[in-house]
Amino acid sequence: MIFILGGFWLHPATFFLTGLLLLIGTQYEYYQMIKTADIRPGVTCGIITGASIYIVSTLVAAGFLEEKWFLVLIPLFSIVMIAELYRKQDKPFDSLAHTFFAVIYTAIPFSLFPFAAFSGSNLDFILPSSKLISSPGIIIGFFLLLWANDTGAYLTGVTFGRHRLMERISPKKSWEGFFGGVVIAMLAAWLLSGWFGVIGTSGWIIVAVIISVTGTFGDLVESMLKRSIGVKDSGAVMPGHGGFLDRFDSTVISFPFVYLFISFIG
């Protein structure tokens, strides 16, 4: 995770590449998991569509393209449907449903990252670009609070966890762990808010609560997915931690809520 944080923090170019890596990694793992349920999504078309959304979002956020360029993405969705005609799958609409869902589930949330980079912050890139006025502050703040919540939830849950949060989906999660995560995330927000910038201390404390709640739901949604198809981990790219989707399941659900909040009050 240090490498991911460093990638977002180092330079605008590494910020872009790190976000693209996470998008492709999580989307690909979703498709691979779905294949175990005897469904064959359009992997290539889906990933091209997801990556295109991210690239156009970056260029629009940076001011290199006007917002009307998002319209060029519309034909991509039609092309995915047309391509399905030639794949000769037994369940073509199951395939299409999962192809498109992965775009919604992973690609769209990560495509908000570039807009966050151009929303302002007190935090500079380690190697700033003279051509772009941008900042990793919102993303760095988001991940630090997310990890503070995860750490607090784990330690509190292991120590005091007695009451299950949603046992049929995730037997190990407890209400004690959830509230412990909220407290630790709020404490981290209080301590680090001045460094993150964009919004004040009270705003970042609210963000910490949003992350704790929506991040928990993000983890539960992925657990529900894995249980429904009978897999333990989304992948093995991170030994001992599973795959990209296992590590960023909270992110894809939580960040859109955080970005929406910051956009309205920032």
Account of the protein in words:
This protein has 266 residues and is mainly α. The chain has one domain. 69% of the residues lie in helices and 3% in strands. The protein has 10 helices and 2 strands, in the order H-H-H-H-H-H-H-E-E-H-H-H. A two-stranded antiparallel ribbon has the order 1-2. Helix 1 (2-10) crosses helix 2 (12-35), helix 4 packs antiparallel against helix 5 and helix 5 (92-110) crosses helix 10 (244-265). The chain is flat. It starts with a helix and ends with a helix. The mean pLDDT is 91.
Radius of gyration: 19 Å
Largest sheet: number of strands, sense, barrel closure: 2 strands, antiparallel
- Mean pLDDT across the residues is 91
| Uncertain ranges | none
Percent range of helical residues: 55-70%
Strand content: under 5%
Tally of helical runs: 10
- Secondary structure: number of strands: 2
Silhouette: flat
- Helix/strand order, N-terminal first: HHHHHHHEEHHH
Overall number of domains: 1
Question: Which structural class do you get from the secondary structure elements?
Answer: mainly alpha
